[in-house]
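Lecture 7 notes: from sequence to structure.
We start with the chain below.
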Amino acid sequence: MQNDEKTLAKLLIDLPDPAIVIDAQSRVMWANHSAELLFGRTLNSSIGISGLELVHPEDLEFVILSLLSVQSKEVGYPIEVRLVTASGWRLMELVGTPVAWYEEGAVLLCLRDLTTRRRFELAHDENARLRSLVQNSAAIIMLVSPDGMVESVSGAFTRLLGHDPELVEGQPLAELVSEPDRPALKAAFENSPVAPSGAPGPLTVRLSLFHHGMAESTPFELAIVNLIDDPTVGGYVVSGHAISAQIRTELEWRKALSLLKATLDSTADGIVVVDGTGHIVSLNRRFAELLRLPDSIPLGRDDGAVTSFFRGQLVEPQGFLTKLNQLDVDREAESSDVLEFIDGRVLECFSKPQRVDGMVVGRVWSFRDTTERKQLEERLSYQAFHDSLTGLGNRALFQDRLQHAVARMERTHGNLAVLFLDVDNFKVVNDTLGHSAGDALLQATANVLAENIRDSDTAARLGGDEFGVLLEEIADHDEVVRLVERVLIAARRPLAVASQEVSATVSIGITFYGPGVSGDQLLRNADRAMYAAKEQGRNRFVEFEGTNSSAAAAI
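Predicted structure tokens for the same chain:
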């Protein structure tokens, strides 16, 4: 057995055809003696070099694809390529087979020099070769006379349509074309330009050709070259190929595109697709509705006008332009923004990079109208922090702002004051005139506070007939006292309730911020001062000082 292996190895080495083994990276691993002679180098000097270096640059891509495909085959198809040899460029036939038993990814290549034989064929039988090429071409080729008669056809006419060439030749080509397509064929012949010498310019037309027996037809794309003025031809050269698969693909593509467009137009979101240069490729009808595009801007045909109209509606267009510039730099980034429009609408805006085969080719934007949701959130937030009867803030809002104000005072060492108000004799009005009168009295008190405090101050109904006022960044003690005096006077104005005039007063407690005093403590101190005002006769204010409430005053 060992002797047999040596014999086989020697036979391979002495094989008249060159043989080479390359690895998965196309590097030479082994070559027989014929290969050494062909390329003019020894095996030892060839091992490790890239076999692709021997390939003509124009054939390189073809060879690489063939080497990749041969891995999945027992034997690859013969290919003809140009290789540089010891005697120059030669036309070689290569046949490869994977030899994984030798090394994973290795390929055995057998080479055969075709240069001399091909030159002989060209020199001795050019016409026969050309006829053979025409007859065996996958495309139909016809010579048609100036009056539309078929003079000769290639073998593909029989293979594809089943017609006997002898019966077709001498007949009008139009009789082989489906009747609805005959006007198109006539127009193609009439409009086919006369081809200038050396630069034929075909005119293409799509039409259906009948099969033998006229039972069915197949769509073809025909290319018509007008060579009527060429004395060697004197007619039209018509070539064509069946396009049934192409038409099916186009129909499926149109159907898919139509379905996609219908889907996008039916979605609740506005969709815009832009290419890598930022130009709009497509947009759906919902986007036009959200943007309220006027009819004067053609949908999807003027992206400059669309973009300009869009920016003109934004409250902060520059912010959106800045975001666009950032996404131009970072094409892999995703974005999420809230856009406010001048007319009060709010749109959520999302974008993601559009990828094809893993490459970013553009960006997809989606827009959703969230105006109602934002308004609902604002209403719920308002209701959570405001008193429904008076419209003032509630205790939760007041305490939150008080805590933040105290924190600022600790940093800035500024001044603030807290007022605690209670409506005098509210229970009497509520019990004698009814709850509606009591509600009206509370609303009147809230109006008094709203009319007399600054925009930067906070007034809130703390519960029942109790109110709180937070005065921030006050100039001095006297400023607070003057405000309190105005409130006391305004609160006494007569109020018409249930056909009666009601005159109510308020008792007010005042406290000022001091280092280390918390917001809760300030509110308790103001509350204690208010009760001191009640005890001292109502319709007055009392300042809290230390543990005592003093400086009572009635206006």
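Points to note: The first helix runs from residue 2 to 13. The chain is about 40% helix and 30% strand.
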